[in-house]
Amino acid sequence: MDSRSALNDGNKWHSTHKIYGTLSELHTARAASERRMESLPVPSVQAMVAATGGAHVPPRYLRPEVAADAVASDGEAAIPIIDFERLLLHHPEEEEACRGESARLHAACQEWGFFQLINHGVPDDVIEGMKANIEAFFGLPAETKQQFAQERGQLEGYGQLFVVSEDQKLDWADILYLNTQPPEHRNMRFWPDKPDTLRSALDAYSAAVKTVADRLLGLMSISLGLPPEGIASKCGGGGIQSVQGLQVKRQDGSWVPVRPLEGAFVVNVGDILQIFTNGRYRSVEHRAVINAERARLSVAAFHSPSIHATIGPLLTDQEPMYKTVDHQSFMRLFFSAKLEGKSFLQRMKLNLDTASATTTN
User: Where's the Fe2OG dioxygenase domain (predicted)?
Assistant: First the structure.
């Protein structure tokens, strides 16, 4: 649930023309109805490419300043790799291995805010089925995709997210955003029925990822000295599964490319966990980099707060750094924020000199 940025026009891609293209994403969220929250309508990136052959990119999509950023080269840095199977070891003779992996998970959340999760148990056919169906959806004619376009006052559907003004910079992306878990929060009006296996693939994938995420959050809670259900009772966990192109920003300002392992999930701590852990676990800025040779498809599974949850620090061993707000206030604040660095977290921070520990503003 954090910022993604595109590079300047010299680095855009198109899978056919190799000049410009689209960043197609499926965002799946465990969230309540987001009525009265919306993203301003913008033209489809894929439609613009189809109309011009990639000959023109509007200035709102150009990020020439990004080209000057330092990016780590191969061998310089890599995000941590966490083995999910080792985290779940129970036999006494496996206790040391489990503790070691738990320590690596704790350190990854504190120091990186990102890690790759291997041996997560989600079947390959579930993952590949999800990828194939979403790729097929974004390959459909524009008029077919528009049948599932976002409507006024809604975030769900085909379009973009976090567009709150007419002059802000935009992602070079087309997005399909859907509430998937729990099933009773699904609005099937926006669930594409083309291709005809997409709905069943999405149902299987979202259920499998939720199972992994809930167990992972339980392990994080234990590492923080909370009850196993401490974080999961507030929200589920999330992950991103994508082709190469994701970059993570380090504290020194450099960017580290994420080189995804075959079958791994790339897990992002995110803003909500930084708030729940009172800053102990880090939400870091990240971006999707476009390349000139191949399309980039990402399936991002966001596990957002329960509609009954209050969002604020759960750890009580230090003074709260963030506000505590109700769910509706949190979601309105989050989706009204531009994707600019960590501006949302700054808006959630308390002024410790004058503010009380709890507010519902």
Answer: 171-305
